[in-house]
């Protein structure tokens, strides 16, 4: 049998030890409290550090009960395993991780097909860290295309972007960062999003595009994208101005294709140049992943695409950042593969059913007026009825928080600042049973709220925040 005579001690090779493996001072762990705003002087045992962090995080709200966020808060364990296996893969290094890059390409192709691109094989797109980055990229493409068409006037003429006042804050950031004038269509009466004709009237020769939102975060309603395109068609016939449309489908672009198949909002409309969505919202993936797609290569100026020689490979990239994990992209592909069209249809219908049923329960209480009913995005907004004077939506939000529910209360923007509402986002994982518990808790609070002498929330800005 084989045996070893050992290794001579002269010139003995030593094993290298990762400093992370080194021991910590157990007595220090027991007796010393680490500082909170500077690095500790000495290391501590991993179990100690883990427990300290975990104890503090117990004070966070329960993500599953957070009805303010659109972001996915539940995935299958198998998806979690895949994400753990891919968290150390750098998404930008497509040469080193070619299969991860291939899964990204497949996701783009699937979305191009889902959104009815004229030729899915020629549609171009990329993954992002979320819809905010995707919107920035889409806005950059709109501005660059406008600058190319107006090379004789730009720089000099100031570009503008037309959108509803209800847009997500990322569009305000885009206009600020890229020096674009934001032209906002105000809310009017019971219209809480963009009016197509009003948007067309704000356009001129310096308009780089119009943003339509498929699923407003203020109330869950779809903006009329087809009507918007028709209004811009009429504008072109009258003036010759050819203004493209970008569809911010952060949420609705992963709902409408499955539940509202007859709704025309996507690349079937020739004026739609680009679409974005959040994979980590109704794409059903943990944060953060988003997607930006253009109908064809012409819609995305080649000069914006960088081709980098990175680690020996030629890598085209269009992004605001560089390194990021591949885990979320892999999880998106897993979810597409796992559910397919029929699976997405069932999941999104379940969320919509919960939203519409819960909205009906809230309306039946008699104290509230519904603004929307959850029949577009699985989201609904409501306010107190006109005869309710003892409390307001901020009191309701505060009291629901006592039971663990995070339901945001907020005031609408200009022209409807008189209107304050509560909004409930129904995501996958917010079941009929949980909705029933929320309805019961709300009903249980009403007697106390009705006995109040007046609304009690002094600082409405601090009462609860509006999470897009």
Description:
The protein is an alpha/beta fold and 468 residues long. The chain has helices at residues 26-31, 46-57, 77-86, 98-114, 131-149, 169-177, 196-201, 225-239, 256-259, 327-364, 393-401, 432-450, 460-463; strands at 124-128, 160-164, 181-185, 207-213, 245-248, 272-278, 290-294, 306-310, 313-317, 368-370, 379-384, 409-411, 420-425. The protein is 36% helix and 14% strand. The strands form three sheets. It has a seven-stranded mixed sheet with strand order 1-7-6-5-4-2-3, sandwiched between helices. Strands 10-11-13-12 form a four-stranded antiparallel sheet. A two-stranded antiparallel sheet has the order 8-9. The radius of gyration is 26 Å and the shape is globular. The termini are far apart. The model has no long low-confidence stretch (mean pLDDT 91).
